């Protein structure tokens, strides 16, 4: 057998993208609750009202202009308000995951359900019990859940109180939130992830926002302190960091392209992996700060926290690769990782959203991570967003999704055979949900179709796609049968 016995198979979703119930159960709003639905052509936008009453919209990684506040407008459809209503359907959905044979399941805990008014406002017991029920349901079917603490859903109340992560006070808020989660669920969950795709903040206009490196310093310190807290609560808890797996290539053999590619890897990926796994900033970090023109206040305590709170494992998402060049005459931009300025790779096909499909790059990237970090790896996200067609008889045939996953799992299997140390694989979106970048439901990732569309129409009923039965077979054979 290529995959070791006990290798974890499953799927991954997130609170904000599937739960809905945005104001139920004591939850307070998060920023993406104010986001609309974009399209293949454009990212979603967050809506707000300026101090003078005029309307405004911005990208989700940007900050509100002074005096503005998030606002709901009647003429906008807000997909996250209902999500796929996992909040009320989790038993049905987890039963379907169990039918596919999942041995793990990744979702995130909505911070705003646990502390709707920040730590000072106290714990919302209803939120705590909701997740306890979800995790118990997973355990009932023999799933070993891997749970994310922070996935693109910062409570608006904390942004209002502290002005966001530029403020060190957010570290304490987060660590208390993490402490509560570890203590409440330690008997149900023993594998945790701190910040989802922590490196993504540098992707979208990152160079224009040097202050984001301060935010990211605070988040990495918060993550490290959370690792320490988890180990104090129970030394058996395992806490990983989670990075967007950005596999990058130089377009040409021009040494300038090769150097550009390596610098990109350092700045957009390794800067985070190195700090969180090794426990200290890498030697090139001062160069990153100098180029950004930013000063980071790194205290002695921060250094101790980073060193003593090293991640137990490294988790990542992998969807695509990106290709870079210094050659200005190459004008054909790729849509992959939208803001990063990649160019089309002539050897790769792209998805409808312009994301280059690169299964061979997956194996290369796995070796890179394994060799560099020498800690266990965990795949949290891998999948294909596509339009699905419902046939007249209600069935959904999605061979493109099966092809994508088959080739990625094949490369994963080869990587395991070649010595890569990885303990699990969860596909992104085992059930259709709200896209993070575009807010669409019609950008579908699921093995399970949800009757909802980008305009919010549909009764939400669930349908097994062809890929459902395929993944069931993959899991049953522990990754041996991919046909
Ligand atoms: C990852 C995120 O970047 O990609 C998920 O962690 C996201 O939240 C996934 O949904 C797929 O991206 P998108 O934009 O297609 O939803």
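Sequence proposed for the structure above (483 residues):
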């Amino acid at each position: 057998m290529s995959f070791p016995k006990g290798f974890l198979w499953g799927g991954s979703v997130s609170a904000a993208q599937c739960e809905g119930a945005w104001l139920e159960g004591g939850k307070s709003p998060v920023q993406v609750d104010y986001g609309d639905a974009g399209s293949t052509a454009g990212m979603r936008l967050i809506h707000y009202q300026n101090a003078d009453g005029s309307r405004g919209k911005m990208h989700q990684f940007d900050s509100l202009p002074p005096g503005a506040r998030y606002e709901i407008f009647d003429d906008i459809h807000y997909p996250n308000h209902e999500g796929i209503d996992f909040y009320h359907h989790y038993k049905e959905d987890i039963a379907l995951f169990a039918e596919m044979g999942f041995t793990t399941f990744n979702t995130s805990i909505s911070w705003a359900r646990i502390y709707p008014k920040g730590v000072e406002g106290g714990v919302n017991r209803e939120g705590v019990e909701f997740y306890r029920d979800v995790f118990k349901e997973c355990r009932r079917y023999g799933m070993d859940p891997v749970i994310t603490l922070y996935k693109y859903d910062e409570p608006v109340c904390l942004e209002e109180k502290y002005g966001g992560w530029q403020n060190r006070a957010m570290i304490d808020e987060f660590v208390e939130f993490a402490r509560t989660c570890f203590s409440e669920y330690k008997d149900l969950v023993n594998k945790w992830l701190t910040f989802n795709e922590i490196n993504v903040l540098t992707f979208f206009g990152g160079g224009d926002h040097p202050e984001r490196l301060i935010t990211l310093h605070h988040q990495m310190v918060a993550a490290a302190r959370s690792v320490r807290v988890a180990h104090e609560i129970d030394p058996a808890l395992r806490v990983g960091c989670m990075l967007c797996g950005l596999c990058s290539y130089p377009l040409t053999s021009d040494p300038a392209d090769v150097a550009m590619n390596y610098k990109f890897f350092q700045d957009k990926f390794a800067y985070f992996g190195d700090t969180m796994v090794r426990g200290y900033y890498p030697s090139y970090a001062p160069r990153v700060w100098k180029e950004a023109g930013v000063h980071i206040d790194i205290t002695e305590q921060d250094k101790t926290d980073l060193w003593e709170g090293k991640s137990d494992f490294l988790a990542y998402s992998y969807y695509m690769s990106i290709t870079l060049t210094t050659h200005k005459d190459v004008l054909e931009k790729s849509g992959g990782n939208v803001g990063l300025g990649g160019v089309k790779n002539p050897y790769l096909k792209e998805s409808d959203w312009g994301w280059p499909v690169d299964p061979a790059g997956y194996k290369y990237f796995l070796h890179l991570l394994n060799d560099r970090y020498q800690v266990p790896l965990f795949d949290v996200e891998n999948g294909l967003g596509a339009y699905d067609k419902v046939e007249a008889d209600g069935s959904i045939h999605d061979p493109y999704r099966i092809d994508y996953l088959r080739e990625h799992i094949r490369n994963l299997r080869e990587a395991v055979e070649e010595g890569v140390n990885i303990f699990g694989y969860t596909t992104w979106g085992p059930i259709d949900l709200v896209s993070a970048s575009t807010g669409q439901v019609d950008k579908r990732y699921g093995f399970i179709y949800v009757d909802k569309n980008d305009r919010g129409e549909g009764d939400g009923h669930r349908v097994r796609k062809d890929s459902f039965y395929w993944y069931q077979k993959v899991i049953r054979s522990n990754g041996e049968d991919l046909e």
